[in-house]
Write a structure and sequence with these properties.
The protein is 32% helix and 28% strand. It is of the alpha/beta class. Helix 4 packs across helix 5. It contains 13 helices and 16 strands. The protein has two domains: 2-199, 3-Layer(aba) Sandwich (Rossmann fold), CATH 3.40.50; 211-371. Helix 3 links the parallel strand 2 (59-64) and strand 3.
């Protein structure tokens, strides 16, 4: 089931119709409300969430109390659960707290309605790997994390809930100085990046086919994995030719049909078995797993990597498993999900959802995971 985090900034855009050029600050909000300014964030969020009306049973919304999400979900009869209690009236501290709670809940997507100030709050509290998407509801929308419209946001969310594959894009988080803006001066500043879903286009960069192009893609994937390696982390490099490319680029011997452990870019243990992995985890070491997809079948777990047992997966945490695969291998699945078949039905259900897949250097897609 797709876990959708929802945060509504109920005051987003409240200053627009009364000429305040923004809604940052409690004093501005109070003045805008006193002047009869309408609160537009909730109706815009409704437009987005209407796309979920026919998808009951495929998602659960995890949201904030009151007008930060709960009230709208109740009125729309959407499957939801309140995971964060906001103050009344709510403020930016509630947004920050809600984001941290949604990260703990491991939601697939944080959907939020607001403007650039809200995007900054999301960025401040968010994990760099978390996927987010903004519903444009503010006066200022300079950030690239927003869909072009509430309806467009709804179409993207529906596609994700239905298991369609999406790329992950780095989008700018921007904001301007509202006080300067009210004086006619635009001072925009970039605060960082957030991951957003994007429409995936499988377009070849060259018309040449064959092994040579595939090797170049594998080199790019390996380069991405190696560049992100940390000195205090043990890396379990799984079976398969895609994982073998990582070992080859490191200049290390590889067990093609097994798992090797790498530490500080050196071979720590070759052909590790379940007990080796459990021992490493029980010592409290940071351990990450690099796994790939079996071509044609689409299996992630349960085929050729049984040393990655349910005990290992539970102790390590699914978030510490990184999937690598070429786009051609994913395309060959014709939309079928990646499969998990660990032998533990409860665990397999817990692993269902979506997973980021490294498909090149600084190139990623979001792909659904299902049952084998």
């Amino acid at each position: 089931m797709f876990k959708l985090g929802l945060i509504i900034n109920p005051f987003a855009g409240i200053g627009g119709r009364v000429g305040f050029k923004g809604s940052d600050g409690a004093d501005i909000r109070a003045k805008a409300l006193a002047m009869g300014a309408p609160q537009l964030a909730e109706p815009k969020t409704r437009i987005c969430l209407e796309h979920l009306a026919e998808l009951q049973g495929k998602y659960q919304i995890l949201t904030v109390s009151g007008d930060m999400g709960e009230s709208l979900c109740q009125r729309m009869a959407l499957n939801h659960k309140v995971v964060y209690q906001a103050k009344s009236p709510s403020n930016e501290d509630d947004t920050l707290g809600a984001v941290k709670t949604l990260l703990e809940e491991k939601v697939d997507l944080i959907l939020f309605a607001g403007g650039d100030g809200t995007a900054r709050n999301i960025f401040e509290a968010c994990d760099e790997n978390q996927m987010v998407l903004g519903i444009p509801a503010g006066v200022k929308i300079h950030s690239g994390v927003y869909a072009i419209s509430p309806d467009a946001a709804g179409q993207i969310v529906k596609a994700l809930v239905c298991g369609e594959m999406m790329s992950l894009l780095n989008a700018d988080v921007m904001d301007i100085d509202e006080n300067a803006f009210r004086e006619g001066i635009v001072k925009a500043k970039k605060y960082g990046y957030l991951n957003i879903p994007g429409a995936l286009q499988f377009v070849q960069s060259t018309k040449s086919g064959g092994k040579e192009v595939e090797e170049l893609v594998l080199e790019d994937i390996a380069a991405e994995v190696i560049e992100e390696m940390e000195d205090d982390t043990y890396y379990v490099i799984g079976s398969g030719t895609t994982c073998a490319a990582v070992m080859e680029q490191l200049g290390l011997d590889n067990t093609l049909l097994g798992s090797d452990i790498v530490f500080q870019e050196s071979l720590y243990l070759s052909d590790a078995i379940e007990s080796d992995l459990l021992a490493l985890l029980e010592k409290g070491h940071k351990v990450k797993f690099i796994i790939t997809v079996i071509g044609g079948q689409g299996h992630l777990l349960g085929r050729g990597n049984h040393q990655l047992s349910p005990s290992v997966i539970r102790q390590a945490g699914w978030e510490n498993f990184e999937v690598i695969a070429t786009k051609s291998k994913l395309t060959a699945l014709n939309g079928r999900p990646l499969l998990v078949d660990t032998g533990d039905k409860v665990l397999d259900q817990q692993l269902k959802g979506t997973k980021k897949v490294v498909t090149g250097y600084r190139d990623f897609v979001l792909y659904p995971v299902g049952l084998g």
